[in-house]
Design goal:
binds adenosine-5'-triphosphate, alpha+beta, 8-stranded mixed sheet
């Protein structure tokens, strides 16, 4: 759990908020309230943002190393602090500093991870003793990926992100993430998914069995994201990166979340590193990381 790694120093909490990748992503249904129910296998990777939270008397302030990131209630981490204080019924404040390493709007749950870190940090700073379940319930109000980010590791995530079932941890391996410079609107991907039948769905149970066997090749062979049916058509570069990852020796490759990040799974560090070096000629956002449990 994310809280396990938070360091408290006086009135300051220091947290790493990790990126996630989707091993699978299936969209099941559209509810009457407009939210889509999903079924996805998520995995934490070692790429992280640094989130510092200082306990203050009143008001919430936020700063980051990225000029274009909102610093007001449009920032999910700011919203998390507001919601925390309101749910805890506390008069107080927080000074939040975020050092972003995870690319923004990439399908890697960067913002959700920051929000999760703020909830866990404030729970510790304010001695509120919310349980993991209670923190996840608060997190679910902020976004579908927040409860998972609070837990971290390898999980089956269902419903609108609030139903979390632990599954066997993914074996340690190298993950090469490449984010092409595209802006993909998650809402428009969902709209297009609603308008055509989904042909290629993940076999989630088979992938969970591969996790149970510690079978990295089996996991890599089962990677599947239904959102690719929309994004690969619109942005052929996504399919191109997948192909190149495979020809560079990845055991499997797929888009994460609603994209545009694509990742490949490697057992062999040398192959992964060579592939990373060749992608780095073309793209700014290339990260060679490891699975994190
Ligand atoms: P997910 O995989 O959960 O859909 P994502 O990785 O695609 O998320 P984020 O990096 O969370 O996307 O950013 C999505 C949007 O949220 C961006 O437009 C960004 O401006 C906004 N945002 C708000 N707060 C944050 C934050 N703390 N870090 C990054 N983006 C944030």
């Amino acid at each position: 759990m994310l809280s396990d790694e938070i360091v408290i120093n006086g009135g300051r909490a220091m947290a790493r908020s990790y990126a996630k990748i989707n091993l699978t992503l299936d969209v099941l249904d559209k509810r009457a309230d407009g939210y889509h129910t999903v079924k996805m296998l998520m995995q934490t990777v070692s790429l992280f943002d640094l989130v510092l939270v200082d306990k203050t008397q009143r008001s919430i302030t936020l700063s980051s190393n990225l000029k274009y990131l909102p610093t007001n209630e449009k920032n999910l981490a700011y919203k998390a602090a507001e919601l925390f204080l309101s749910r805890a019924g506390i008069q107080g404040g927080a000074r939040i500093m975020i050092h972003k390493n995870i690319p923004v709007a990439a399908g890697l749950a960067g913002g959700s991870g920051n929000a999760a870190a703020v909830l866990c940090a404030m729970n510790m700073l304010y001695n509120t003793n919310f349980s993991a379940r209670e923190l996840c319930d608060i997190g679910a109000e902020l976004g579908a990926d927040v409860p998972y980010c609070i837990m971290g590791g390898t999980y089956l995530v269902e419903g609108v992100g609030e139903i979390l079932t632990p599954v066997p941890a993914m074996p340690s391996c190298f993950i090469l993430i490449v984010k092409p410079p595209l802006n993909i609107s998650t809402a428009s991907v969902y709209e297009q998914i609603d308008s055509a039948p989904i042909i290629n769905r993940p076999n989630t149970d088979a992938l969970i069995s591969a996790l149970g066997r510690g079978d990295t090749a089996g996991i890599a062979g089962g990677l599947c994201n239904v959102m690719e049916s929309v994004t690969v058509k619109q942005h052929p570069v996504i399919g191109g990166i997948k192909k190149k990852l495979i020809s560079n020796g990845a055991l499997g490759a797929v888009m994460s979340g609603s994209g545009p990040s694509v990742f490949g799974i490697f057992n062999d560090f040398e192959k992964a590193k060579q592939s990373a070096d060749s992608f780095a000629y073309q793209y700014k956002d290339v990260f060679l990381v490891k699975t994190k449990n």
